[in-house]
Amino acid sequence: MRIAHFCDSHAGRPDGVSRSAALTVALLREAGHTVDFYQPGPFWSFRPAPGLVRSLPVPGRQVRLASPWPRCRPADLVHAHTTGPLGMAGFRLAARWRVPLIVTWHTDLLAYADIYPEVPIGAAWCAAQLRLRWSLREHLELAQPGAERQRRLAALGQGMFARAAAAIAPSAKTAAGFAVFGPGPEICVLPTPVDSPRTSVVHTPAPLEPRVPTSEPDRTVGVSDALPDAMRIPHSRAHDAATRAERPGTANGIAQSRSHDGDNRPQRPSTAGPIVPSGPHDADNRRGRPMTAAHNAQNESHDAGDRSERPTYADGIAQTGSDGAVRGSGRPSRAGGVILSVGRVTAEKNPELLLRAFALLLTEKPEARLVLLGVRLGRARLLRCLGALGLSRSVDVVPPVPHADVAAFFSAADVLAFCSTSDTQSLVLAEAEAHGLPAVVADPGLADRPGGGPPRFTCEAGPHELAAALRRMLDDSSLRTRVVHNGLQATAAYPRSVYLERLVDLYRRHLS
Q1: Hey, CA dihedral for 126, 132, 138, 139, is it positive or negative?
Q2: How sure is the predictor about 29, in pLDDT bands with cuts at 50, 70 and 90?
Q3: What pLDDT, on the 0 to 100 scale, is given for residue 47?
Q4: What does the pLDDT read at residue 260?
Q5: Enclosing H/E stretch for 220
Q6: In what residue span(s) does the Glycosyl transferase family domain sit (predicted)?
Q7: In the predicted model, is pLDDT for residue 250 greater than 80?
Q8: What is the dihedral of CA 406, 412, 415, 419, to 10 degrees?
Q9: What span, in angstroms and rounded, lies between the C-alpha atoms of 83 and 7?
Q10: Per-residue pLDDT, 182
Q11: Is residue 109 pLDDT above 70, yes or no?
Q12: Mutual angle of helices 16-30 and 496-511, in 10-degree steps
């Protein structure tokens, strides 16, 4: 069986679509299937690697626009992961080859349409590719925010799914959303798997060990050599002062060097310390507690003993004064809890909800700390929001890191905060669960876990509701143990082999 996969999200892009598509292709190839994988590649490559389609970067976005006319070998089945130029090429070629078309609905385009102008523009192009023969009035509806645009996008989705043999929904929430497209093809709920804790290697950072002070301005002081590169956030006192002078509204610890904007490494400067536990006790304690109670059970009494024994963060990256003494940065201690958010801070991810909820949490937990990992686009607006809410000294902003390094952040945090209400599945939730990190999800639609079992701990998408949920997760040890236990069980119950078996079964049903 030869299968052709089409994906507009290029390799290395920090999103779940590219990772899900790449994993699917790798599993199929390992199982002995012949798979052609078409995705954006460099434009100037003299001989691009097989499957890479010449593309151009979109200014100001982490997106590459590929040629809609790739050279493809005929296949027995086409699987489209996106609806951009390459995805629509899959639609077109499946009709030309007269083979089944499978579509995975990774992105809720209806939710993104009012945020990204390229969505309605691309929708008009897709309608032309599908030969839907819309009138000028119908095309103009795409330019009208609100109900008219949503209605026209629903009509486009109906036209797409009319050409598909089956649609894959990464979650039950996404499957329910297909109702807006009317009668369509078979719908298969098939989440993307992640490594279970039995097979994944989790790196737990070592405790902080002070180093000998140095007068070199960019030398990282007070950080253990055993830390992964993702945790090394160098501090420059001179650059920090200059940045504060240039941006009076940006508080200490948030301003970042512009020279690293295009880099995938952590940027400087930051007065925040590395995100590390004081020792292996913290990571082990989070993973090893037995958990049996149901999701909604509540324990109002806080385990004061557990809180008092929780190890505290070291002072962070130390600064070397003129007298040679090593002074801490004055960052919050571990006692307040470390909240981690992973992903973009663009509007569809709802970062303002998280910041407002964290501001409420700080009134009760002034030593709490928020780590925003994966920030690149929208950083200037984020910094303004942090300054307006008075959060700059309690929030660390970290640019994207290699995916392998994210595990160290999971190991060092106390809770994952997930605030997007537009995600179709969010791989970061399952990955956090696989690493034993409890999550608070501000989207009840994502309560179902890929491996089944009790639902995730969710709350309504409001600042007060999210702040209360985060406070419970930090203070209620019995709740934490239940959530961690349920997450580990769910990821272990949904290995890659189950995903592959169900996917191949779907393929064969439509090939017969």
Answers
A1: positive
A2: very high
A3: 76
A4: 37
A5: none
A6: 338-487
A7: no
A8: -30
A9: 8
A10: 87
A11: yes
A12: 80
The SS3 of residue 398 is strand
Name the residue type at position 341: S
Separation of alpha carbons 484 and 480, rounded Å:
6
| Sign of the torsion formed by the C-alpha atoms of 278, 279, 282 and 283 | positive
pTM: 0.74
C-alpha separations of 296 from 39, 467, 479 in Å: 43, 17, 9
- Which ranges in 113-234 belong to alpha helices (H)? 118-129, 136-140, 147-161, 172-177
pLDDT number for residue 63: 87
DSSP-derived pairing of the beta strands 395-398 and 369-373: parallel
Give mean pLDDT, residues 302-324: 33
Query: Which domains are delineated in the chain?
Result: 2-193+496-511 (3.40.50.2000), 275-289+298-492 (3.40.50.2000)
User: Could you tell me how far CA 212 lies from the centroid of its own chain?
Assistant: 37
Distance, in Å, from the CA atom of 41 to the CA atom of 57, rounded to the nearest integer, reads 10
Please give the residue that has the higher pLDDT: either 313 or 132.
Answer: 132
- Residue range 213-225: mean pLDDT, rounded: 30
CA 244 to each of CA 39, 72, 214, 256, 320: distance values in angstroms, whole numbers, following the listed order: 42, 53, 23, 10, 19
Burial (Cβ within 10 Å: 0-12, 13-18, ≥19) of residue 390: exposed
Structure confidence by residue, pLDDT tens digits, 378-400: 889 999 999 999 999 999 999 99
More confident residue, 370 or 61: 370
* DSSP codes joined into one string, 330-379: -PPPGGG-EEEEES--SGGG-HHHHHHHHHHHHTT-TT-EEEEES-BTBH
Helices (H), 413-495: 427-434, 463-475, 477-492
Spatial contact of 475 and 302, defined as CB atoms under 8 Å apart: yes
> Where do we find the tokens 């000028």?
136
CA–CA separation, 494 vs 433, rounded Å?
12
**Listed residue (17, 8, 169) closest to 91, CA to CA:** 8
CA dist., res. 479 & res. 117, Å (int):
42
